[in-house]
Amino acid sequence: MRLTIEGARVIDPASQFDEITDLHIAAGHIQAIGAAPEGFTPNQRIDARGLIACPGLVDLNVALREPGYSRKGNIASETRAAAAGGVTTLCCPPDTRPVLDTPAVAELILDRSQAAGNARVLPIGALTKGLEGEQLSELVALRDAGCVAFTQGLTPMGGNRILRRALEYAATFDLTIIFTPQDADLAEGGMAHEGPTASRLGLVGIPESAETVALARDLLLIEQTGVRAHFSGLTSARAMDMLADAQARGLPVTADVAAYQLLLCDEDLVGFSSQLHVMPPLRSAADRRALREAVQSGVVQAIASHHRPHEAEAKRVPFAASAPGISSVEILLPLALTLVADGLLELPAALSRVTSGPANALGLPAGIGQLQLGGAADITLFDPAQACEIGRNWLSRGSNCPFIGQGAPAAVTHTLHGGKLVYQLT
Predict the structure, then answer these.
(1) Domain that holds residue 198
(2) Name one GO cellular component term (predicted).
(3) What are the tens digits of pLDDT across the range 49-74?
(4) Residue 266 sits in the same domain as residue 408
(5) For the packed helices 285-297 and 332-341, what is the interaxial angle rounded to 10 degrees?
(6) Do residues 68 and 32 both lie within one domain?
(7) What is the chain's mean pLDDT, rounded?
(8) Are residues 296 and 362 in the same domain?
(9) Quick one: average pLDDT of 293-302?
C-alpha cells in the first residue's frame, strides 16, 4: 500500500517542523515529506487540505481491562477507542487479573493487541508480585518480555526499606519506575479533595499532604538510588513546586497529568455525579491552575488520558460507592487542545505534550511520537475547524465520561498506525 496525504499542515513537535505539505507513505513507513520520491505512485490519496497532520498520539496511561475485567472493556475495544482519539501508542498499567507481574501476562497482552492491530501497546509491569508490595517481580524478565516501565500505581509498598531496595535493583538494570505518590494512611477512606467542597458535601477528604508526603519520600529515594523515574497523575500545586525544584537541582524526573485534571476541579462535585469520582481526586481550582501552568512551563512534559473504562453499574450508584475513573482515551486530543483555545499553549507545544513529550519522558523507542523519515507511519489527522459532540461515535466499552454531550474543539478524521488506516471519521 502506497498512500499520499495531500496538503495538510504537518506539525512535528520533535523536529519543530511546521509546514503545509504532503506526506508519502509506503510499506508502513514515511518515505518522504514534501515532494514524492522518484517513481512513487500512490494507491490511495487523502485530501487533507485544512487538516493538521501530527505524529500519532502517545498516551502513557490507558487501562485496557484485559485480562480479567472484560465487563469493563478489552484490548480490542479500548485500542479501537484509542485509534478513534488519534492515539497510536499507549502504555497499559499492570492492575489486570492476573496482575501483570509475569512474562506470560505481558505476552498475552502483546499478542492480543497485535491481533487487534489498532495501536501499539506497551505494557507497564508490576513492581512487586501481585502488586502486594512485598516481593519484587521478575523485572528483567518482564523487560525482556516487552515491559517499558514498572509501577505500584496507588498500591502501597510494604515499607520504605522494600521500596529503596526495589529502586536500587531497578537502577542497576536501568529500568524506569513510575510513581503515583499517595500516602495510604493519609488517604485512607477518602474520595474527594480535603477542602470546603468535601466538607459541604459530607465527603471524606484526601489531603494534599497524602500526595506531597509520598512525593517527598520518592524524590529523596530517587536521588539516593539514581533510578530513572516518572511521576504519573500528579494533582496538587505543592507537588508542582516540589517537582520543579527537583528538576532545577538536576534530578532527571519527568511527569504527566491526567487531561481531565486540567479542566475539572473539586467544585464540579456539587451535583454528586459519580462520573467525577476519580483517584487521585479532583483538587481545588488553585491546584488546577498550577497544573496548567506546569504544563505550560514544561515542568510537566506529558498529558495522559488516565483512561479507566467501567461498566454502567459501577457508576450507577451513589458517589461514595462508585468505582473511580473516567473513560477518556478518545478525548485526549480535544482536552489537550482546550489549552490552545484558552491561550495557554501554542498548537505545536500542545501537540508536543501528547506526542514527543510522553515518548521522551519514558524513553520509548526511537521514532515513537515523531514524524521521522523511514520511521513508522503513525499519523493523526484532525480538523481544527470541525467542532463535534463528544460521545456521538463513542467506541470505548465504558461510557463513564462526564464530557459526553459536550462540544470538542476539533475532530480526529484519520488515524494511521504503521501506515494502515485504523480509523476514519464517517
Answers:
(1) 56-373
(2) cytoplasm
(3) 999 999 999 999 999 999 999 999 99
(4) no
(5) 90
(6) no
(7) 97
(8) yes
(9) 98
